[in-house]
Write a structure and sequence with these properties.
With about 180 residues, the protein is α+β, with helices and mostly antiparallel strands. Helices cover about 35% and strands about 25% of the residues. It is globular, with a radius of gyration of 16 Å.
Length: about 180
């Protein structure tokens, strides 16, 4: 029995007639992995708008046709993954916002974290949403190595943490958008 899904694209979902921001877990049925995720589901993500930082927390779990999702308050925007497919000018505008948001998090003493192309969203109303890093790390760890390569592994230096890791990640993103390759 295979539990993993191929896609891990967060985005808008509808659950019980309401719209939420859904994060697929990659789990189809019952799994011990859900126990660990349930233990950390209260770890926050952040929305950064200028110098303002607000927490973004998971509301709960839901089972949908595609599998089990974590869900939280509705947020609309484009993912870092989608942004990599856009024009260089569009990318650079959002890249500047990403750097400013990361600096704001650092200045607010929020520990910096590894990034994924599926864990960062540029919101329609302005601002950057960082999905809860500890939760996303658990979800990434559930995936096969080939499946997580482009969304996580290639972006994060295995021997660096904090600002050093993020500097590496930002350099890799620029290289990807300029050359089209990792």
């Amino acid at each position: 029995m295979q539990e993993m899904r191929v896609s891990l694209h967060p985005g808008e979902i509808e659950y019980k007639g309401e719209k939420f921001f859904g994060i697929p877990t990659g789990i189809i049925g019952k799994s011990f992995s859900l126990t660990r995720i349930a233990q950390i589901k209260h770890d926050p993500g952040w929305i950064v708008q200028g110098e303002l930082v607000s927490e973004w927390k998971i509301t709960g779990f839901c089972k949908m046709e595609e599998g089990i999702f974590l869900y939280g308050p509705e947020a609309q925007g484009i993912s870092l993954e989608e942004l990599l497919e856009r024009s260089l000018e569009d990318f650079l505008t959002h890249f500047h916002a990403l750097i400013a948001a990361l600096i704001t998090l650092r200045d607010k003493s929020i520990p910096l974290f590894n990034i994924s192309t599926h864990s960062i969203f540029f919101l329609q109303g302005g601002g950057v949403l960082f999905l809860p890093p500890e939760i996303f790390k658990e979800l990434i760890d559930l995936r096969s190595s080939g499946d997580k390569k482009e969304v996580y592994t290639l972006l994060n230096h295995p021997d660096r943490i904090g600002e050093e890791s993020l500097s590496f990640s930002l350099g890799i993103l620029l290289y990807k958008v300029i050359t089209g390759n990792y």
